[in-house]
Amino acid sequence: MKTTGLENKLITALKIGSYSGNEGAFCKYIEKIIPKDFSIKKHVVSKGRYNITASRGNSNVWIVCHTDTVPGDVPIRITKDKIFGRGAIDNKGNIISAIEATRLIGDINFLFTVGEEVDFAGARASKDLVNGVAIVMEPTNFKIRTSQCGVISFNIVSKGVRAHSSLDVGIKNHAMNKMMKTLNELLKQKWHRLNIGPIEGGVAANIISKEIRASLSVRPKSVDEFKTIMSYLSAIKEVKIDIINALKPKTKSIAIKGAIEDPVAFFSELAFFERGVVFGVGDINLAHTDTEHILRRDLELAPSKISDLVASLSK
Fold this sequence. Notes:
four-stranded antiparallel sheet, about 325 residues, zinc, hydrolase activity, about 25% helix, Bact_exopeptidase_dim_dom, metal ion binding, alpha+beta, Alpha-Beta Plaits
């Protein structure tokens, strides 16, 4: 099937694995396709990992793109109207589109970050480099969003004793039962977008496990909900709660014509920048799924859409 030059760049990007912690090869590809008239710098985040800044001229606008993807393979496939692959919209389609947009834009800055899907290590390390307005590239169906939900991610560790399953060790010593009790109580709270991720530690059906672990996240819509959740978690004593991320919702940080002020349900690197918007190609409902894909027509439209947004923020 015939593909365009822009599509070929995306397909090449999709072939380069870049799940969190393994972004190096893809970062090298980004350095390769950025136009030669940009000043490019690497910013070490941790051993073997780095962010990239690329600047041309003197602009107050920064396009911010995370380079990592979630794990899980999505076979690359091209149909009449779609391109499938892990990162097609989150976030390689946006990266390729933004770089392509430099053909239409004059002065502009880029920040390419690592670790967004796990701990935001890249954004945390380089947030002070962005000294203007940030366009945080994420799939929003080309809608300009100025607010977002917060995120609280945490691990639960439940400890007990290892024993034969025929014995009654009591709730205090039964790690799995304590875990299930805690999870059930959390579900009753009706917090916004509470998600229970992996639960680990079981050994066998006839063994009472000594330790059970679970990873969870919740996305508070308001600062009040954020405070309520943090207070609730801090009061839990029966199991151990380890907070991984606790980042407040971001309310409207900039006024721009046509923007939607209602917060997006997901969390993005917008939280780390004083002024900015979330914007990009693709539907968030397809991100992280087994059928992640980008519409080919949207990919071709994206550079001009990004160029228009940069122009409006440069005024």
